[in-house]
Amino acid sequence: MNKTSLIAAAALAMALAACSKEPAGEEASQTEAAGPAATGDASVAPAHPVEQNAIPDVLRGRWGMVPADCTSTRGDAKGLLTIGSDKLEFYESVASLGPIREAGPDSISASFAFSGEGESWIEEVTLSTPDGGKTLVREDTGLDAQPGPFTYTKCP
Questions:
Q1: Residue-by-residue pLDDT tens, the chain, 156 positions
Q2: Cα 109 to Cα 101: distance, rounded to the nearest angstrom
Q3: Residue from 113, 131, 122, 74 nearest 152 by CA
């Protein structure tokens, strides 16, 4: 390659670099450090922040698979699910919240440590409410998971 070609290539490279939309050097690091508020990009922040170490509020409470699960006084509400900030309580088992894979304002997908009837196991569970808290959908995954999904109605 001769000197003229090298000079032309260098000039072309500098011209292309000058046309780049990316801020250079210190200007770029200031923009990155400023975050979404300074850049006006509010889409980065979640609309409803969710506590990442707890089950979302809208999912908490008593849920029944059938209406009698919510009203039984005989202790036979086999489809009753009570959800707290960090645990699930079923008829014959309890599950403690473990590592959270995903969480949103109306859903959570996490590992739960189950125990009941003298046994213990880990299961991946996804809980969501498609209608703002009237209905709960539970999906279990893993080797010993029950086939689902399971649908519950919020107890009054």
A1: 444 443 444 443 444 344 444 444 444 444 334 444 444 444 444 444 445 789 999 999 999 999 999 987 776 678 999 999 999 999 999 999 999 999 999 999 999 999 999 999 999 999 999 999 999 999 998 777 888 899 999 999
A2: 6
A3: 131
